[in-house]
Amino acid sequence: MASLVPLLLLLVPIISCLPVASCKSHVGFKLTLTHVDAGASYTKLQLLTRAVARSKARVAALQAVAAAAPVTDPIAAARVLVRASHGEYLIDLAIGTPPLNYTAIMDTGSDLVWTQCAPCLLCADQPTPYFQPAQSATYRLLPCRSARCGQLPYPACFQKVCVYQYYYGDYASTAGVLANETFTFGAAAAESSSSNLTSAVRVPNVSFGCGNINAGELANSSGMVGFGRGPLSLVSQLGPSRFSYCLTSYLSPTPSRLYFGAFANLNSTNTSSGSPVQSTPFVVNPALPNMYYLSLKGISLGTTRLQIDPLVFAINDDGTGGVIIDSGTSITYLQQDAYEAVRNELVSIVPLPPKNDTEIGLDTCLLDGLYLGVRLMAC
Ligand SMILES: *[C@@H]1O[C@H](CO)[C@@H](O)[C@H](O)[C@H]1NC(C)=O
Ligand SMILES: *[C@@H]1O[C@H](CO)[C@@H](O)[C@H](O)[C@H]1NC(C)=O
Ligand SMILES: *[C@@H]1O[C@H](CO)[C@@H](O)[C@H](O)[C@H]1NC(C)=O
Ligand SMILES: *[C@@H]1O[C@H](CO)[C@@H](O)[C@H](O)[C@H]1NC(C)=O
Ligand SMILES: *[C@@H]1O[C@H](CO)[C@@H](O)[C@H](O)[C@H]1NC(C)=O
Ligand SMILES: *[C@@H]1O[C@H](CO)[C@@H](O)[C@H](O)[C@H]1NC(C)=O
Ligand SMILES: *[C@@H]1O[C@H](CO)[C@@H](O)[C@H](O)[C@H]1NC(C)=O
Ligand SMILES: *[C@@H]1O[C@H](CO)[C@@H](O)[C@H](O)[C@H]1NC(C)=O
Known about the structure:
Layout: E1 4-9, E2 16-17, E3 29-35, H1 44-68, H2 74-79, E4 89-95, E5 100-107, E6 113-116, E7 140-141, H3 147-150, E8 156-158, E9 161-167, E10 173-185, E11 201-215, E12 223-226, H4 234-237, E13 243-247, E14 256-260, E15 282-283, E16 293-294, E17 300-301, E18 304-305, E19 323-324, E20 332-335, H5 336-349, E21 355-357, E22 362-367, E23 370-372
Parallel strand pairs: 5-12, 6-11
Antiparallel strand pairs: 1-20, 1-23, 2-13, 3-4, 3-14, 4-5, 4-10, 6-12, 7-10, 8-9, 9-10, 10-11, 13-14, 15-16, 16-19, 17-18, 21-22, 22-23
The protein binds 2-acetamido-2-deoxy-beta-D-glucopyranose (NAG) (8 copies).
One 2-acetamido-2-deoxy-beta-D-glucopyranose binds at residues 94, 101, 187-188.
Keywords: Aspartyl protease, Glycoprotein, Hydrolase, Protease, Signal
Signal peptide: 1-17
Domain Peptidase A1: 89-379
């Protein structure tokens, strides 16, 4: 597999708006996305170093997914459901009746919606109490024969109840039962003058993993919400639907936003420069159909189109390669040749001597706040 190298451009005010799958929608809400490091008082240098380290782990996990994808043997096939954990953004939601508030990692790189449930046999630390199915009036176990059970990558059956195991690429995992519940979204978004935006949206019959055996890091949250393209993701379950998110720099106090359904409307979205947004279709990699692949053709700096063979961005026949957009990777990784082309051009046009910034773990530092990284990982 080609090596990927990270590219971090922080001087550019980044507002990325990601519209997904446009269709009629019956559910609409908007939420604040909280950066995982927002609660703690890290310095700018610590924030960068932590983001670089998380992205490095995330890319390694995503590459483990890609490497595991084209397999035929069933044990290895179970590993195909490796996803990448380590999120960057958290959302607030509530589960059950009466609703129990919790915070979860928002993840476009996986599908399953899950939280840790009592009785917990093995659980990661979380800031809220475990969800107690017996105390919710709307909790329903899913039978093994149900359509939703069949959509799990690795379904199993125990006493006629659908049980799941879900692995992430860094050996985080969750296992438990698949159940339906009523989820509540958007209660925390009460800040708009339009009254419809202020009310919480209750969505019945969302299928989720009630995890009794869980391992890994939840970044001070209590579960994950998969926004991938697979059938069990929140996006697919609420569909036909769509979502968009606008990410502010995590060095900025302006919160990031997530819009769902009717509120994910590109008509009311402008770029920071005031020009209308442009769009490009997602492409499907058959080896990893739940990921959001983009068809990248080239990179320009200013008006200079860099000399990069477009094939370095292509999805290969074996499912490797390609370019994904991912909520959990805060720095952009490029294939080695593409990275060198961008780095060399930047170094040549910025009239400052490049410095090797080993403190953060990136190889080229041009200005305060503008970093270029190389070779954080080899594969
Ligand atoms: C749950 O979250 C909502 C929205 O943030 C808040 O209004 C409500 O008071 C919370 N409920 C509890 C029990 O903390
Ligand atoms: C607010 O919601 C009501 C009921 O769902 C709907 O009739 C109305 O058109 C909505 N208003 C706006 C501004 O979206
Ligand atoms: C949830 O699904 C069950 C089974 O299909 C159905 O009986 C029930 O009415 C649904 N609940 C809601 C609130 O739609
Ligand atoms: C769970 O929710 C799905 C989707 O709404 C529905 O088709 C199914 O019948 C529900 N099952 C149960 C047991 O509520
Ligand atoms: C964890 O989250 C809780 C609120 O959910 C917050 O009060 C606490 O400060 C957070 N802890 C850390 C270490 O971020
Ligand atoms: C966006 O605006 C165009 C033209 O005004 C309209 O045809 C289209 O239906 C709008 N789309 C949405 C999702 O509102
Ligand atoms: C978006 O930009 C266009 C052109 O500058 C402007 O007419 C429009 O009002 C802007 N819309 C929003 C929602 O800011
Ligand atoms: C930057 O420093 C690291 C650690 O000393 C070294 O491995 C790397 O090759 C250096 N990169 C450049 C471009 O000099």
